[in-house]
Design goal:
The chain has 695 residues and is α/β, with parallel strands linked by helices. The chain is built from 11 helices and 36 strands. The chain has an 8-stranded mixed beta sheet. A 5-stranded parallel beta sheet has the order 4-3-5-6-33, sandwiched between helices. It has a 5-stranded mixed beta sheet with strand order 8-14-13-10-11, with no helix packed on it. Strand 23 and strand 24 form a beta hairpin. Helix 1 packs antiparallel against helix 2 and helix 2 runs antiparallel to helix 11. The longest helix has 21 residues. The chain starts with a strand and ends with a helix. InterPro entries: Class_I_gatase-like (IPR029062), Ig-like_fold (IPR013783). This is Membrane protein. Keywords: Membrane, Transmembrane, Transmembrane helix.
Amino acid sequence: MTNYSIAFDPFLPWPVIWFALAFAVLLSGIILVLRTRGGVLRALAFLALAVALANPVISQEDRTALPTSVAIIVDQSQSQRLDGRTDTTEQTVERLTANFERYDQFDVRVIETARAENADAQTQTRLFEALRSVFRDVPPSRIGGAVFVTDGQVHDVPNINEALGFDAPVHALITGRPDEYDRKMQLVEAPRFAIVGDPVQVSYRVEHQGDVPAGNESVEVSIYRNGELLAVEQALANETFEAEIELDRSGKNIIEFATDEIDGELTGNNNRAVVRIEGIRENLRVLLVSGEPHSGERTWRNLLKSDASVDLVHFTILRPPEKQDGTPINELSLIAFPTRELFVERIEDFDLIVFDRYQNRNVLPVLYYDYIAEYVRNGGALLIAAGGEYAGDSSVARTPLFSALPAVPTGQVQMAGYYPRISDDGKRHPVTRDLPGGASEPPNWGRWFRTVDVQDVEGTTIMQAANQKPLLVLDEYEEGRVGLMLSDHGWLWARGFEGGGPHVNLYRRLAHWLMKEPDLEAEALRAEPDGQTLKVTRQTMADAADPVTIIAPDGQEIILELQKTDEGLFEGSYETGQIGLFEISDATQSTLSHIGPIDAPEFRDMISTTGILEPYLNEARGDTRRLLNDNGDISVPNILPIRSNVETAGRDWIGFKMTQETELRGINRQGVFAGFLGLALLLLAFSAMWYREGK
């Protein structure tokens, strides 16, 4: 492209030139008025001389038209993976790119959205944010427009009066079918926190979107708590219902509502909705019953009293009924031991019962021991902190409580110094696995000096005395749990004997394991999100861990191998590009984990639509149309360069505004009166004047 223009580069200041031009005009006027011979030629000569002083210059510019920048914004959100939309998108982008390549003046930029590594960035479809980003380095005058390839579910559509920052059309090509319908489970209201054991209300709603076939109005809703089926309820579509749920553990609880799919619906991915509720325990209620006083009597009491989450009821049997020593009645305790209230009427109120060197001396009726065994059988927790009395005739092992105990005393008590050691099973058990000082040999803590011999050991021995004899045995008795500590010398650690030991860690973990603290389970499968990574941890007492199966939100199954990271611990991680609920399971354990926000906008509505983008794009002089025609074939419009925004789309085309911007490649300047050409013109003018005068 070549442009010509004329400019002036005067030899003298402009006032002088204007004066000379005025003088030439005046003189020429006088000559013409007097009708002197050669007056016209003289006038032309004077004017030529004045113009020559202004030095007119002809400029020749060599310019190249700049390309017009256009953008193809491709929606790669999770809803675009449904019902063949991925293939439609890929084919559309390929054809659009080919159509643009027919025109050299287009600079085409293709950008994909929802490809971020952060899960939160994938919970919304933000096409306009991508549109502003792709043109950040382009002047508005060079922007020819943009086209969205999307299902229409866009979450950052600007206000109808908000400008985009450039004057060019923006079009939208919509994937998906116009006759889609879908069923969606939605949580209306749910608490973030709840007290364990207290019922909470969760409101839910089953929504039907699109033209759902008749006969699907009644819906069966299954409610799960941490993967366990709690209830099946009947609900009606598009109405809100309430469910009453009771948490069974502290910490993270995932409550899931699920319903069956409708034949032909868009997707079943949103037929489930989950809420994460943090379970908060009210203060744990512990009953501590101490036998006759001993050196370590207050160890358990001090530990439990120091725990702000524990409500402790403590009784010490100072005087058994058979002891008659003539002490006056007014010097005895005024508080009678409420045996019936504690062990019959209110036994279920306690989370843990601790017998600290307690022996059967007729304080409790024999029948009450059966009540205690029944309490454990139904889910309670019992700890026996045994001393020498456990081996005698008054041992609680010789009562109906025997059925709940994990070991039977032989009647022998060993008195010799030894280091309590963590057993092989104990190295894998969460109660003792990483006790400070336990990894060295001998252990880096003080010795104990008494052990009660037992036989017929059931359950798991996690600590051992001398000669690998059981020291701490844990067992599960039907729904409940039992711990048996076969020495009363833990107080030596509390007193700092020979450097002491981790009695606080040990006792606290032991108590919380008995009360079923999830983090202390010996067999557990856990999964936690870390950005777009799902981290899986398997706690087990076995030598190896089986691979786990991960079911992604889109139904894909992934087998994940776990690697040993510590005794009893196996871990693995899975990188994913999806957000939603993941199911993780192996042969015996299962768990759930959710990546990204639970109520993500991306999953609220998944039916393709033109209604969200069309109002705004009409104002932006763009076109919104579906890609699939009535036959289900993909119909991609042609590309047409346009010069204005008067008409930007037609029946089978969409237009993009061409820029008028050019780039200067070179310039050539030539003075009219410069050099021999200028001299020749002046000589010609004056020669003609003299020639005429000579006639």
